[in-house]
Amino acid sequence: MGDPPAAKTFYVTTPIYYVNDVPHIGHAYTTLSADVLARYHRLRGREVFFLTGTDEHGQKVQRSAAEQGLEPIELADRTVERFQAIWEALHISNDDFIRTTEPRHRRAVEAIFRRIDEAGDIYPGEYEGLYCVPCETFWTELQVGEGGCPSCGRPVETVREKSYFFRMSRYEKRLLEHIERHPEFIQPESRRNEILSFVRQGLKDLSISRTTFDWGLPVPTDPSHVLYVWFDALTNYLTAPGLGTDPERFERIWPADVHLIGKDILRFHAVYWPTFLMAAGLPLPRVVFGHGWWTVEGQKMSKSLRNVVDPLWLIETYGVDAVRYFLLREVSFGADGDFSHRAFIGRLNADLANDLGNLLSRTVGMIQKYCDGVVPEPSEETALEVAFRERAEAVMVAQDGFMAQCAFQKALINIFELVAAANKYVDETAPFKLAKREADRPRLRTVLYTLAEGLRFLRLLTDPYMPTTAAKIGCQLGIPALEPGRPFNEVSRWGGTEGGQTIHEGPKLFPRIEEDRAVAIHEEVARLADAEEAPPEEDAVEEIGIEEFQRVSLRTARIVAAEPVPKSKKLLKLTVEVGGGEQRQLVAGIAQDYTPEALVGKSVVVVTNLKPARLMGVESQGMVLAGETPEGKVVLATFDEPLEPGCVVK
Ligand code: ME8
């Protein structure tokens, strides 16, 4: 992003979210990334202003409220509470929360409108065009073609009405020049190129008022019009710093250092917004970063699928810092990503529980055991310590560069390479062996000091991403949070603590998610995903033809052996005979309702053409059919009369 002037407040924003939708991980993702930047700069002693909020005007919100029998403001009030509850649970450290229905916002909108009007860039005219209400976007006929709204595919409406226009065409050249001269203005680069080619096709004037509905701010010079919702919404970035209310503060905060947004709203931020600002004679934001799009379990986030990625549910299930870590670690910030619970659990177990969690618990455990719980002072360094220290210092230095590019994933990979290096250092120095010989005591002290200092670095490094975890690391190591007034470059210097502090052994940072619990989570996810789509009546179940049913190969089978799957409470490994002397190995989730002994000899029904799957490392070559009572007890399907293995079931 280039270097901003040091004294200026670091100003970071998220989009203001529409209040007709409920918050989901897409919103959480943008807000979380802004939170990381805000915490990062605060930690380094910079003044920070971090803004998020809600977009409450416009036809979409008005319609949605009407459908629910509510006034728009009632809908907004309800949704705002939900957003705020999620931000609190996610430990979002925003300094302000802007609502476009607040009086201060109206003043800012009036201020920018008048500036643009005075520049001669607003004129009355007649608008005729195609409008997509869900996207609050005008389109040309060429863009719409046969397929409806180019963005969401839904039908567009023809709108013809009197309208005020913004003379956007006048700023085409200046905008192009600005984008060309400031490669950091639109990021990542692929998005910058998209916008460049869009602007090169020519900018038309923009209709910025409407008369067909009234849920919006009035045009200051003509109250019979309401302002186009995007004109209203974008101005929020000026309202909160104080445009129209507090000029001094505004001067200190504006321009924004970075507007973080999803790629869906790039054009509004990288074309409309800078031209509004140019016309108003205000400086442009330094960076607009359009991040990628999340899907869920490989699918577009539909209403029902959103349940399984409800941020509150995720936080409850995995813990807040695991959610924060996963979202920023899983994909590169500019790229699209897929949210999968399997990947989540894998990462949580590998990176957080194993690598980071174990590093802390073994370090603290050894300091407790070998040094009576006091971090020792080091003596001479060997090449191993020098290499580790240099690595830690390099990771600390590298962070600025990553943050300047919003490269959160790269930053986390880099930080966790230090975790891996620390674990390797334990293996190489083998402190448990050093502890056995009195003569190795000084060396042992150096090793444990080095680990404690490495973890102190990790405490600083992880703080923006996982503030609670960082605090726990600090607490277990007996190091205070940042001492007020002590500059970061001092705190972040190797040797910043001399040793001598008492540690406090604590609970594990991240409990592992065991396979059983993972299975339970997957089942819960499947249940939630189905919940909204599940037909309310039985006769509404999707019909299939007999041919489709016949594709499933069902056979009778006899259980010849059964045993528990190690470390699993739910699973049993079964050996079944499926006819013709063939035996199959199956894994079935019936351990809570059947003992292995009770199963041997039973006739059951098995799906024999199911793709093999591995459950807790054991291959399952089919599936046993069973029913479930409302209380969740599993009952195997058997027969009225004994049947030999291998009979067709139909
Ligand atoms: O567009 N993946 O509000 P909005 C990643 N009010 N990010 C996602 C996402 C997904 N699947 N879904 C949503 C608006 N987002 C306007 C903004 S700003 C002046 C006005 C995030 O509620 C992403 O940041 O539709 C996206 O840009 C934003 O939510 C859209 O939120």
Helical fraction: 40-55%
Overall structural class, as computed from helix and strand content, comes to: alpha/beta
Adjacency order of strands in the biggest sheet: 3-2-1-12-13-7
- Determine the strand fraction and express it as a percent band: 15-25%
State the end-to-end CA separation: 65 Å
- Helices, by number, come to 24
Q: What average pLDDT do the residues reach? A: 91
Q: Which CATH class of the largest domain is shown?
A: Alpha Beta
If you compute it from the alpha carbons, what radius of gyration comes out, rounded to the nearest whole angstrom? 30 Å
CATH architecture of the largest domain: 3-Layer(aba) Sandwich
Structure overview:
The protein has 3 domains: 10-291, Rossmann fold; 341-491, Isoleucyl-tRNA Synthetase, Domain 1 (Orthogonal Bundle); 547-636, Beta Barrel (OB fold (Dihydrolipoamide Acetyltransferase, E2P)), CATH 2.40.50. It is 44% helix and 18% strand. The strands form 7 sheets. It has a 6-stranded parallel beta sheet, sandwiched between helices. Strands 18-17-16-19-22 form a 5-stranded antiparallel beta sheet. The radius of gyration is 30 Å and the shape is flat. The chain starts with 9 loop residues before the first strand and ends in a 14-residue tail after the last strand. The model is unreliable at 1-5 and 534-540 (pLDDT under 50). It binds ligand ME8. The site of ligand ME8 has 20 residues, from strand 1, helix 1, helix 8 and strand 12. Ligand ME8 binds next to strand 1, helix 1, helix 8 and strand 12.
